[in-house]
């Protein structure tokens, strides 16, 4: 019987910014379907850890595996070397990340924000991408906002659009970086409700 690889596996991951040690030998395994919360004070490396897993930070020591595949490095002649091109993109496509400050394009509508990557990266037709986008907007409770621009949405609504955009790429792993920290207290519940539904 073959064992299933962890969704995420970190082995002795270290990250420095100048002389500051931010991650000091982190070891972690997350099983497929698992939900893990990383808790710590401001500046303790939570965002840096997530950015390493999403390979937005590539200058780290140690090894990160996503569903058994080594992130950002490849084995050549018995040595680990920096991966590039299609090998790296293949692993990165497994991860979706939602940030605390939404990062929506202000000049695009809600549906435009969601379908952009589907058209450019997944090479879907606009019609196919809009079908996926509309399904996701229904899932996050924003189907009536598809033609609105981000400036006309509440913070909670913008964050739900950001979640839908990340889900559009069908990642196997979702990372949420303090997604409610920029929201007013009354908007936190609507975002947490969507996240809870996704986890179930």
Automatic annotation (TrEMBL):
GO molecular function terms listed in the Swiss-Prot or TrEMBL record: ATP binding; ATP hydrolysis activity
PROSITE patterns cross-referenced by the UniProt entry: ABC_TRANSPORTER_1, ABC_TRANSPORTER_2
InterPro entries associated with the record: AAA+_ATPase, ABC_transporter-like_ATP-bd, ABC_transporter-like_CS, MetN_ABC_transporter-like, P-loop_NTPase
UniProt keywords, alphabetically: ATP-binding, Nucleotide-binding, Transport
Domain ABC transporter positions: 8-200
Residues making up the signal peptide according to the UniProt record: none
UniProt cross-references to SUPFAM superfamilies, sorted A to Z: P-loop containing nucleoside triphosphate hydrolases
Name listed for the protein in its UniProt record: ABC transporter domain-containing protein
Organism of origin: marine metagenome
Biological classification of the source: unclassified sequences, metagenomes, ecological metagenomes
